[in-house]
Amino acid sequence: RERLDIFINTEEGEEVGAHLIVLAAFFPVFRKHLSGNDIVHVRLPRFSLDVITAAVEYAYGGIDNISPETAVRLYLLAHNLKNKGLVDGCTNFLCAR
Fold first, then answer.
1. Where is the BTB domain (predicted)?
2. pLDDT confidence of residue 35
3. pLDDT at 91
């Protein structure tokens, strides 16, 4: 948790930490927070810990393994966070099933 500057709260009330600069590079909606020096807290209560963790893993280099159910929810999150690459990746993953 050291030097993490964005924390995302999940539907379970869990918190996922990350580096804002990494998330902002992949998810344009986070770019508005780059101008400040504060720790950012974002609530995404419609999304589970598994889905938020998968999105953060994607930003840090890729997702190892997810279920089709998680992929559907990740598709919705990717759409909300405006990442076409992840939307397309989820679509391809689900179509291949």
1. 4-68
2. 86
3. 97
Of the candidates 14, 25, 5, 82, which has an alpha carbon nearest to the alpha carbon of residue 50? 14
Domain that holds residue 34: 6-95
State the helix-helix crossing angle for 84-95 and 68-80, rounded to 10 degrees: 160
| Domain total of the chain | 1
* Strand pairing class (6-9; 40-43): parallel
Of 13, 17, 76, 7, the C-alpha closest to 45 is 13
Q: What is the pLDDT along the chain (97 residues), one digit of tens a residue?
A: 578 999 999 999 999 999 999 999 999 999 998 987 889 999 999 999 999 999 999 999 988 889 999 999 999 999 999 999 999 999 999 999 8
- Are the C-beta atoms of 40 and 6 separated by less than 8 Å? yes
Which CATH number covers residue 84? Answer: 3.30.710.10
Task: Provide the 8-state DSSP code for 14.
Answer: -
Report yes or no on 81 lying in a domain: yes
